[in-house]
Here is the input.
Amino acid sequence: MDVIGRLQRQRTELTQALFKEGLLDEQFTQLQLLQDPNNPDFVAEVVSLFFEDSEKLLDELTRSLEQDPVDYKKVDAYVHQFKGSSSSIGAQRVKNACVIFRTCCEERSQEGCRQALQQVKHEFFLIKSRLEALLQLEQQILAAGGTIPFME
Amino acid sequence: MCQASSKKTMKCRTDAIAVGTGKGFQGSTIARSNYQLGPGRLPAKWWVQASAPPAICPSAPNMQNQRVAKRWHLRLLVLWVLAGISVSIWVFYSMNADIVKRRRERLLNMCEERAWMLQDQFVSSLNHVRALTALVTTFHLGKQPSALDQDTFAVYAARTSFERPLMTGVAYAIRVLHSQREQFEREQGWVIKKMHSNELQPAQDEYAPTVLTQDTLSHLASLDLMSGEEDHENILRARASGKGALTSPFRLLESNHLGVVLTFTVYTTDLPPDASPEERINKTAGYMGGAFDFESLVENLLRQLAESQAIIVNVYDITNKSNPLVMYGLNTSIGTTVSHISKLEFGDPLRKHEMRCRFYKQPPVPWSAITTSTGILVIVLLIGHILYAAVNRIEKVEEDYRKMEELKLLAESADVARSQFLATVSHEIRTPMNGVLGMLQMLMDTDLDATQCDYARTAHESGKQLIKLINEMLDQAKIESGRMELENIPFDLRIILDDILSLFSAEIKDRGIELAVFVSEKVPAVLVGDPVRLHQIITNLVGNSVKFTDRGHIFICVHLVDDENRVDVPNSQACTEQSVEVEEEESWNSCNTLSGLEAADKKMSWETFKLSLMHGSSEPTSSCLETSDTVNLLFSVEDTGVGIPYQAQERVFMPFMQADSSTSRNYGGTGIGLSISKCLVELMRGEMTFVSKPSVGTTFRFGLPLKKGDPSMFKSHAEANWRHPQNAPLPTKFKGKKALVVDGRPVRSQVTRYHLQRLGIFVEIICSNECCSAVSRVIARCETTNSSSSGATGNIDMVLIDKDAWGPNTGVDFPDSLKKQTDAGLNGLLTAPKLILLAMSLNDEEACKAQKAGFKDIVVKPLRASNIALCLQVALGFGNHRLKVRELTEGPGSMHNLLSGKHILVVDDNRVNRRVAEGALVKFGAHVECAESGREAIAKLQLPHKFDACFMDVQMPEMDGFEATRRIRKAEIAAAERLPRNGEVKNGKHTYRVPILAMTADVIQATPEECARCGMDGYVSKPFEEEQLYKAVAIFFEAAH
Here is the structure.
């Protein structure tokens, strides 16, 4: 019981930190609300989908930007995808970075795009590590027989 | 708190009764009337080109016409005046000539008369002188000695002088030859004297001394007539011719008057008429002479005649034509120049005489002619003046008219331009406003503190209102510019009204107002018209009522106009329907309206209602089979609000007019809604009126002629038209069920009945003003059921009780009363009907209480067939889902209600998004399938399919959402044509058209217009937001339960 309480406190702190730092937004809460006994791993499933897709997309983006000439249309499509999925899980800062990326894309600025890609990557790995930590905590809580508290 | 208050002030408003200037609407009527008449000319202009076609453009040719006409008028006028003057001159001359002629005739007559008389008298004198010659011959010459002496002759002559009116006297001279002179002088005793001088006559060849004289000529005695020049000549002529001879006029002796002397010769023997002059001279014995004293005697004669003063008479001797000698009259210049000459015959062929007559006075001025002609002239000039003035006046009026027409055209074009401007600007404003609203919505979704959130929300509400206002102005402009086109499509009026109820249900929920709809049974299920506009009209009216009503009810009622008219006729047909038992309630309700409060329009009272119901139920078949394909519907929206002040009632329909300036402060609104509604009703060939009493309420009524449709028509058009094509038909599983409605208010019970009947439920009403009597009747009814199983009665499946049946919250206690009267309550009866409570609003506590009291379910008002059905599904155990009372009280169709059991296709290329959307929809009970691309979606939506809806990402690689939707729609249309209609039933779907909702993160990019253009039915923003999702989905699934 003590372990669960500690884990849960950790989880709450972590989540609050994520919101406070602006890494996540309301949408993530919505996701959490969608998770119910019928669908217990919903958040984890979505988040891992997000990770998979995003890594693929980042690879594509990196490759596309190294080409000469750069196919901005393709890049833009990837960034759009990335932006869509990040806003779907509420990864606010990744989404914002994507917005900047798209602006650079429209300007056809290769240098800007590269910088933006770096920024997106940075934000992505940041949220990834934090979310993984969060999911891990939740796994531990569940493993310890606790329940995941909902944020009201 | 702060948020709440700001929200309240910004509450969406429909319209109001308004103050301001309403030029626009009037302008539009002018414009319309002009289109009908066309630019015309004054009808009074009859004399110019009466047959000419009306000029299209009244400026240039018209002016020319006018100028020509003006010149023409002037010429005509001058002609007229000239003709008038000549006529008057002619009249003058002819009249004058007539006068002169008559005067001349008069002169002639007078002259002739005088001449004749004179001649007559002269001749008679002359004859008498001749008779005297006979006397002398007989008595003087024939007798020896002479029987005549001077005295005898004088006496005789004097005595016969009346026979010689013109003669002063007569004398007899004897012929004495010189040889006989001495003897003669001896015999007589006197010597022959010379005339004029009275001296002794010197010796001559012969002499003619006067021997016998009348007394008046006694001075002639013994004078030798041969000595007088005239006499001498005369004597010679007389004796030679044997006839009387006249002298030329000369001064007579003694009297010195002008006169002539007549001489007859006396012969010694009678001579044959053909005797020669010598014989005559030889036989001459003497001479008889007479003196005509013209001057005095003719004067006397003429004086006897009438008008002797008026004319001047002259008698001339014209023997010598070149020198006429005056015999009588003054040869002066007195008198007129006009004269008449008459011949005179005095018996002496040598002498010629004539009479000349003149008027004494100058002819009088011909006043009659002058006045007559002057009068004519004056009349002519007056008429000319009048015509001139009239022409001028008409020209002026026409000129004014032309100017007015120009001004009117200007005004109209200005009006059109204004409308055009409004339309353009409104559209241009709307586009960025959508962006503003979208961004505000997004802003509100971000992490804002309370104040910021309040600001953003206020801004959002204001923006929404602005959009609403702009839409209204756009409508107004469209109507005014005549570009408002009405659709003619089949629709279901009842569904529209249900939709309006759900629109306002949230707003009135907490205000304790009862909102209800009643549609007469006789109104056909499918009508043809413009449902969107009808929706707009009713929404405006209801919105208006909602705004101004704080208590009581708002009641939308639709009847056939015929029913309304028949109400006034007393109906002998007894109400035989057993379910309407109305004998008691008259005394109970102060006003038999929906809420019991007084309504402005008394016509809507229960009496009316009852009658129209009676007709509806007693002759339903005849009304359904009416041959005419139009029905006249009477819509009324009754409220018990603040009413419209009497002085403001005239202005109600003017745009931007409100009852008074405080209205907009207290209630808000622009005042354009009612004006638009009225215009729309008029466009639909209807008429809108209202009755309002301040602090009692307002009833708006409008009649519309709508075509009847038939359901088959409805289905074939449905896919393209009305905005709820997905509305599933009302469930039919309740058909044949029996319900008992218990209520204290007859109108309310009828409303309930209307909705239940739509579900096919057979309804009986127990309408009683007291709870206990109602209870006993219910029990009696249920027991009847049990004892007799005839078809007319049958089992009661449910009992519906209004929460406020006999006053606030009295309905809730109904089951308790029921229990008190029967030992076991309703459950003790053989068939236990379900008790259902109808409530306007219900808090948790009350809900619990109701549940405890034995109510199976609660239906939250406003009543609609769909929410009753939903409730009954649960209560009667039809439903698939067990819904708690609490969930139901949340309002009709929470997310779960809406989506549970639905098959939904989610199309998104983004796995994460897809999963999130799926998760969200699954949570609300939907069965979700996913498609990764537009192509896959098309494949999955190949008909027949099981999907109820599709959520489509807009931006996808390969094929975006718009394109996919277009293709799906195309395929659906093709399929609809190919497959028979019964295919729909097989899939349990209304049509082939599946609702497609766009999913987009980009609210601005995916404008509603764009979505609609490619056949989408709406859009939801990504990520899903419950409220928005609900709104989008609710449209399709609301009535689908």
Q: What stands out?
A: The CA atoms of residues 645 and 694 of chain B lie 5 Å apart. DSSP finds 32 helices and 29 strands in chain B.
